[in-house]
Amino acid sequence: MNKLNMNHVAGIILGGGKGSRLFPLTKKRSKPAVPLGGKYRLVDIPVSNCINSGIKKIFVITQFNSESLNRSVYETYKFDHFSRGYIRILAAEQSMENKEWLQGTADAIRKNIKHLAEDMNVEYFLILSGDQLYRMDYDMIISRHQESRADVTIALTVVNKEKAPEFGLAKVNDEGEIKAFIEKPQEPSLIETYYIPPSVKESQGLSSDKDYVLANMGIYVFTKEYLCELMEETEEHDFGKHIIPSLLGKKKLAGFFHNAYWEDIGTIRAFYDANLDLTSSSPQFSLYDVERPIYAQPLFLPASRLEHCNVRNSLISEGCIIHNVSINRSVIGVRSIINKESTINDSIIMGADFYEKRSNKKKERIQMGIGNNCIIEGAIIDKNACIGNNVKIINQERLDSKEGEGYLIRDGIVVVEKGAIIPDGTII
């Protein structure tokens, strides 16, 4: 299918989940609205992939803490009247037919199908997740769906056996048709039955000494006609847990193999690692691909000002003011203010939404950002946080998890909550 026909494809980005694995980053925002790479949001990845693939009919389904996502999408993506393109937010709604909130991926589609099916020119639906980091030419998976004459096409990627319990797993035959599927198996003996055979490892250039599985990426292609029919026939809530396994042996399920970088960044550890990898000299995911850019909200900020700083292997976003600071292997977000004699190592500083000072509990006006003589290592500092002077955020006790005033430790990573105020002299 060439790109000229992508006007007949609509992308559906699922962004309605609670994002509990990313808490507290999702405490005050929806999961797809979580900042990424200093200036982007998670939702910018699938939307950019759609635009770069020629798909300009996009739906974003939201539910929890959806205001920030709605605002970001509205302010970022504008299609002109002549492109026939649109991006529409479908917020969870109650009606006479649907009195409950969205219960899963399939339920989100079912309860919005009347809106999704309105465009008579759309022939295919491409269902996408809002919490993944990857690039994909979606016209290739649409072509795979057409050529295989499948009822459903599922994007699959290779992962190590250690990660198998986190994903739905598939077995395919020589024609790439899915013959077995299981959602997040926990039993090692069961996972073994899904190992990629040696012949496939050899053809894909995989190490013969390691075991791999084919993981469901949560990306699906349906014809509009069949998806509408399927949503009427079943009341199941989730594609991976319920619908895909129920179709085995009844419908043709085709696999589409994605051989490039892909990361599910739905956990604090995965989110942290994926962000810091962007700072490496050869990142697995490049933000500098001029042919397939990642789009973001235009902020019209001035260039960052760095005075007497030592910066190594880091990303510095626009609008920052940084004085006499040492920064190593860190991502510094927009409007970050970092004051004198502070050290930032292996951390994500998300920045701020504005420059104005805030009031603390004593009604005193305090500057957002990071104060003087602070040490921050292995941490995520969410937006609009106020870190006082002489603060050390270093997970001093080397804890895997903990909950404190204005912060949590998850997977050994200290996460300072959005808008938190950390007083002078605090040691975490």
Using the alpha-carbon principal axes, give the shape. globular
Mean pLDDT: 90
- Per DSSP, the total helix count is 10
CATH superfamily of the largest domain: Spore Coat Polysaccharide Biosynthesis Protein SpsA, Chain A
**Could you describe the largest sheet, including whether it forms a barrel?**
9 strands, mixed
Q: State the CATH topology of the largest domain.
A: Spore Coat Polysaccharide Biosynthesis Protein SpsA, Chain A
Unreliable spans are none
CATH class of the largest domain: Alpha Beta
Task: Describe this entry's structure for a reader.
By secondary structure, this protein is of the alpha/beta class. It folds into two domains: 3-277, Spore Coat Polysaccharide Biosynthesis Protein SpsA, Chain A; 305-422, UDP N-Acetylglucosamine Acyltransferase, domain 1 (3 Solenoid), CATH 2.160.10.10. It contains ten helices and 33 strands. Strands 1, 4, 5, 6, 8, 9, 10, 11 and 12 form a nine-stranded mixed beta sheet that branches. Strand 23 (358-359) and strand 24 form a beta hairpin.
Give short descriptive properties of this protein.
single chain; 428 residues; alpha/beta; Spore Coat Polysaccharide Biosynthesis Protein SpsA, Chain A; UDP N-Acetylglucosamine Acyltransferase, domain 1; nine-stranded mixed β-sheet; seven-stranded mixed β-sheet; 10 helices; 19% helix; globular
